[in-house]
Specification:
This protein is mainly alpha-helical. The chain has helices at about 45, 50-60, 65-70, 75-85, 90-100, and strands at about 5, 15-20, 25. The chain has a 3-stranded antiparallel beta sheet with strand order 1-2-3, with no helix packed on it. The protein starts with a strand and ends in a 15-residue tail after the last helix.
Length: about 120
């Protein structure tokens, strides 16, 4: 592969981004968590959605459990509903959850490709 690779973009705890020739490529990880693994990124849309708001609070607070007390569950729920309604990626993840629920999900993969205008 040839091209200009920007390695300065990966800072903090966000998902890894591969930037090649000015275009971003993300690897979002597994659709389902491994045993004893905390939920991250796309897993929050797919796994254990009956407890989605507490799962999101845990994901946001990380190891600092005191910070989870500062997060308002009602606001997180309202944001979740808004994202589910308007974000086409969230809609795709929710659809993926349904596919995983009706099958064993072990071989399911999803690719998100967005054409830039």
């Amino acid at each position: 592969m040839s091209g200009k690779i920007d390695i300065s973009i990966n800072k903090g705890g966000a998902p890894y981004v591969f930037k090649l020739n000015g275009e971003n490529y993300h690897q979002i990880g597994r659709m389902l968590p491994q045993p004893e693994e905390h939920l991250r990124f796309s897993q929050l849309y797919i796994y254990d959605t009956d407890n989605e708001v507490p799962n999101r609070i845990n994901a946001l607070s990380g190891k600092d459990k005191d910070s989870s007390k500062k997060l308002d569950e009602e606001i997180i729920e309202e944001l979740r509903m808004m994202v589910d309604e308007f974000n086409h990626f969230a809609i795709k993840f929710r659809h993926s959850r349904k596919k995983i629920e009706i099958g064993d999900g072990s071989s399911f993969k999803m690719r998100l490709i967005e054409k830039r205008t």
